Input
Amino acid sequence: MKEESITCTQAVQHYLQAIENNQHLNSFLEVFAEEALQRASYLDALPSSQRGKLHGVVIGIKDIICYKDHEASASSKILAGFTSLYSATSVQRLVDEGAIIIGRQNCDEFGMGSTNENSAYGAVINPIDNSVVPGGSSGGSAVAVKAGLCMASLGTDTGGSVRLPADFCGTIGFKPTYGRVSRYGLIAYASSFDQVGVLANTVKDVAAILEAIAGPDDFDSTCSNKAIEDYSAEIDIDQKYRIAYFPEWIEHSSVDPEISIQIKNLIDKLKRDGLEVEPVSFDLTEYIVPTYYILTTAEASSNLGRFDGVRYGFQKSNGSDLKDFYKHNRSEGFGKEVKRRIMLGSFVLSAGYYDAYFTKAQQVRRLLQEQTELIFRDFDIILAPNSPTTAYKIGEKTKDPLAMYMGDIFTVFANLTGIPAISLPVFKHSSNLPFGVQAMAKRFNELSLARFSQRLMPQ
Ligand code: GLN
Output
């Protein structure tokens, strides 16, 4: 990642030019050009003894992660004009290690979506094929990495929003264990699911960034105090892996036959290489998507209550009374998908339905977590598809939200159970579109996940 032979200024100039040449992708909502150049020249003048571990690394951030004195919109009209008073811990830690933040990246509004079409600032285009979606919700972040507009991006992953766009664009997308990276400064969607994640071109880049951003934080009590491992230094040390896969997932009726064949071929290859790979039956598959959408919409309806036109950004009218005021601001400030989720969430939390939906879903989440823990007693890695399909046409699923939700089946599992997961771009479909394989590990076993990923994608 460290391009020793060129200066930080040259690196920033290179990326600014690339962003300029690729404006049609709509990947960045704002580019911090002047500021990035100033910071680069400051970094260039630093003696090597004072350089951080990420000296001169040019990073883009999903516009859902706050950066002090910069706008943060969550790609929503309701936050238009809002400037953050503080930096997210993850962003601050990157800056402390010498990284250069080059801009904020387009995403689905409040992270709700799988295609990046739910942005108040327009859809993002997939650089591999301009007629298909880049995946979401961190679409701008994946596109920027794939199209060479920055070295790496920070995204957020509540139900696959880092791994899915990585899969559709052909980059690496990594979601840490829930609690490995501070959520302070991340605009909340569903707080018991949200994690900051990394999009990059190599596993080593992911490891270096994770090392910088992970670890305890006084500002987020759900962030674990567990010590961070030395991911970069230990990544090349190989270990023994016991690998599980769920035949119900690979053979699932929604999975494109080519995706299922390629993953089966990979499993065969790993076996031939002498690794232990075993099928494990997973009978809770059909409960995964409903459980995720009940719990995340419930949390979203509560988290998004704060956007009322009084405290942040958009204010449409003064209204005739307070109720009218809220109604106008929220009706016009939020997009369609966000409103659908707030209504769904309010419904599952309402008296009379609470036990039937919310409580039930919490019980199923617990079951999923227990079953997953049992699997990790015998295995180190679970191998799976990321998505049933490759990237689809822009507009193809916008009229059918349920079909879109079903596409999250393989990614939301890691968020429901809190385990770390990575999407590795190892395949190409006959349509020419890339797709990857997903590897998951036990909670806080990022190191063995990184080692296994490095083995699949050595660089
Ligand atoms: N597609 C999922 C959703 O819409 C993922 C969101 C995310 O991870 N932020 O909820």
Notes: The CA atoms of residues 99 and 446 lie 22 Å apart. The chain has a mean pLDDT of 96. Residues 111-114, 137, 156-161, 189, 296, 408 surround glutamine (CB under 6 Å).
